[in-house]
User: Fold this.
Amino acid sequence: MRGLSPEQLGIMLVALALLIGAARILGELARRLHQPAILGELLAGVILGPTVLGALAPQVQAMLFPASGPNATVLEGIGSLAIVLFLLVAGMEVDLSIVWRQGRTALKVGTLGTLIPFAIGLGGAALMPTALGRQVDADPLIFVLFLATAVAISALPVIAKTLMDLDLYRTDLGMVVVSAAIFNDLLGWTTFAVILGLLGSSSAGLGIGTTLVLTGLYAGLMLTVGRWLMHRAIPFLQAYTHYPGGVLGFAVTIGLLGAAFTEFIGIHAVFGAFIAGVALGDSSHLSERTRVMIDEFVSFIFAPVFFASIGLKVNFITHFDVSVVLLILGLTIGGKLLGAVAGARWGGFASRERWAVGYAMIATGAMGIILGTMALEAGIIRQRLFVAIVVTAIVTSGLSGPLIRRTLAARRPQRLLGLLTPQLFVRNLSAETSRQAIRELAQAAAQHAGLDSERIEQLAWERELTAATGIGHGVAIPHARLNDVRQPVIALGISEAGVPFDAPDGRPAHVVFLLVTPRDDPSVQLDLSAEIAHIFRDAHNLERVLRAANYTELRAALIRGATKS
Amino acid sequence: MRGLSPEQLGIMLVALALLIGAARILGELARRLHQPAILGELLAGVILGPTVLGALAPQVQAMLFPASGPNATVLEGIGSLAIVLFLLVAGMEVDLSIVWRQGRTALKVGTLGTLIPFAIGLGGAALMPTALGRQVDADPLIFVLFLATAVAISALPVIAKTLMDLDLYRTDLGMVVVSAAIFNDLLGWTTFAVILGLLGSSSAGLGIGTTLVLTGLYAGLMLTVGRWLMHRAIPFLQAYTHYPGGVLGFAVTIGLLGAAFTEFIGIHAVFGAFIAGVALGDSSHLSERTRVMIDEFVSFIFAPVFFASIGLKVNFITHFDVSVVLLILGLTIGGKLLGAVAGARWGGFASRERWAVGYAMIATGAMGIILGTMALEAGIIRQRLFVAIVVTAIVTSGLSGPLIRRTLAARRPQRLLGLLTPQLFVRNLSAETSRQAIRELAQAAAQHAGLDSERIEQLAWERELTAATGIGHGVAIPHARLNDVRQPVIALGISEAGVPFDAPDGRPAHVVFLLVTPRDDPSVQLDLSAEIAHIFRDAHNLERVLRAANYTELRAALIRGATKS
Assistant:
């Protein structure tokens, strides 16, 4: 009855646990070093794959991740499912209405930012196919088209995240870049679908013409009739089935069906899932809660499995060829910068912003890696070109943020949780009055930041006298603005008994934040105060903070409070 | 490179889409008919499996769900993953502290409610092994132990849900039943682990003694040291990794590792996942948000795949044997009622409550089905006994709620969303005064419920004059209590312009609920008012309700508002 023996089942579970566990740990490490999480996830696969584990303990590696047999098949099936769900979610993040709203400027950046790198990729691939690593028996036309697409594609999720991190997402510049990236994504995946159509790998034995017509029909119908039907269906599901499970099951089913359809007609499943995601995600009825639920589960369980399994497939050391890596990096960054900067110039952006737009568009990220994987599997490219594409994807994703920050002199917004440290956490305030609480926290802040404690106390107290800083809900936010401070410093004290801070609701403060901020940047203090007030508006969060036995638990409680929207 | 051909990948995606889609649709239908969702999910598999599709279109069935080959292996792998995650979540729902708090009474009900049905199952299995469908070459001792466990196990998730539906979960009776079920679950799974140990199927070639010692060590260490370590790790993960993705990845990784360990030592993976879930879920640091996220994804994507795939394995018509079904049903219901009622009597419950406790414990639900599946795969039982166990699981789960309701004369609580109907939704109130609004809604209510419109209007208006019913946030809840009304009736009107209802915040009411409730049941009106107030405390919900173009969108908006906690 059972196809998998207990041993095989056990190995499958260990293999999955190792992939998810290692990918998550290294993904978090990458994030802490301000690198894209995908870098860590790939690295997990490199470590568990032939590159490291295979070199150190070949038998263990072959047992855990065999190249063939039932375990290999299951892992491949789960990997395929993961990538289909990942593209479904990526599609759901595409908001077509943003493109319309941005109008011509977005179209200009999108068109030039896609066509120029595409043309440059086309030229590069045509001039040096063998140097770049074309598979010997691959069709030259298909190879050239593929490389141009791989060089021209951009990774919407990476771009959106980079812009959010820099607080640029909601600006004109941010919206133009996002719309251009959406445009680019749609064009890129359609081109890739055409390439796969040219390959003629349709399992239903269709000719290339039929495949292309069906692809066009699928995308066209899905984005019009399908989109309209789903927009109708979602409120119905929310109203009459389990919420949010009903919509969740619906979204996954639609994504799988779309993926299966495009796979059958001879282009890859990911295209169908992506278009289904665009059609689904466009519905304003789809609640934030459902989106977040699918997104988190796919991003933190399925995506790590897929990206780590890429590292399993290829030996990244033996196939690392410096010249190919540099060529692909050069073609990608050069082509995109040229195209996007030209587009931004045409769209009327000032010189600095033009470059920012260009830098924002260079990331090929997950999309580049996925395209590369498909091409490797379809026998279009060789492993050394694949490795170069993966390296390019990671390097461009990591460079994008710092380059924009430099160009615009933009700063990462100062967030409460980025500024808290264990040294500035006073678990038990002994203070009985607001003055004493301010003194205690001023001493902590001064010691840590090398400032003058009395000066902080004096300024904070003067401020306190003009208007008390108890904001109610058991929280007070005394503050001092200093000339000689460059980074905000926050000292946080907890008082079980409570300290009177003259709050509007009459309650004593159990949590006291002393903010010491630069005098020339008044907005920092207001932003931080607003963030604190937002967290403590929900009374549960005060309880959790008071229950925290140490700094880690305190931090966890604040993050829970800050994330729950 | 690729093990699955495009065709096989396409088939895998279609097969998964069909399983999830059909299981969700039939699961929702079952829910609407007040039956357990699992009934619908199993039915989906029966329809897609040999029983129906296989009889109608054998080729299609064999293509979509082949019995062997790569697609069968992948589906089996995903099914195993699904059941491991399902048991992880089931374990997370177990709250050991409840058992301690309920103390002796819970222990009494738990002990007798587990041991008596176990003894009865033992006796039944020993007396008529062949009639019940023992596999010919199965060890008699193992068969007897298994059947006793299958008859004695109870389904904590089903029991908890039944009690919640009847508003009994937080009562003494509810807590005793839940603790008894937890006790029963732990004992049942441990016994099953022992049975599998006796089978000696350890892939590591361990003797039965070693297997049992390792099982005990695993459970013991996981529930003490492991539990303590996870309780420490969770705040750390929440504080320093992506929230809630970090904890999500951690929980799944731990579950998979636990499952792999127990699979290797020769007992089934589900035991390891279940115990890991208990240890994880016990941490008070694990946020509700993370729990709900795992729970929803597993319950609505993975569980349907597993339960539907059960229907694929067996022909439920050819293996349906009335006498075996009746025997198993009789042993299960008889044994459990006897045990639980005796335990409740010993614990000091009054006569009526004793029976309610007994009825609450009869559901074997998902746990019975999973045990049956494992036993079938291990070659302990034959298909006709498997079918009888599945049928018993569904019948007992479906009977439990109605029997308790009857015994305690308990009523399903009247919830807002259960009482709204499209006929009583007035999209555009023409009223300009509160009196006019009450009249308009009274007419709608009277027409639908066959009541006297003027009488409703008069009573509601008299009530309105004693104290205005505008509760602020743009909502008013006028109400009338009538003698001749048995079911509450709610008419809901929307006014774009707003109707003055003398609210404390001075805002006119855009949403007016007219509640008509039975005079002899004042709590209904208070409960409904509280529910309405809760929904509209969040201003976004008023916006969504006002944007609703029709009844379905209105209902979806209210559900979103009511579910978001």
Remarks:
- Chain B has 24 helices and six strands.
- Chain B touches chain A through 82 residues (CB under 8 Å).
- Chain B has a mean pLDDT of 87.
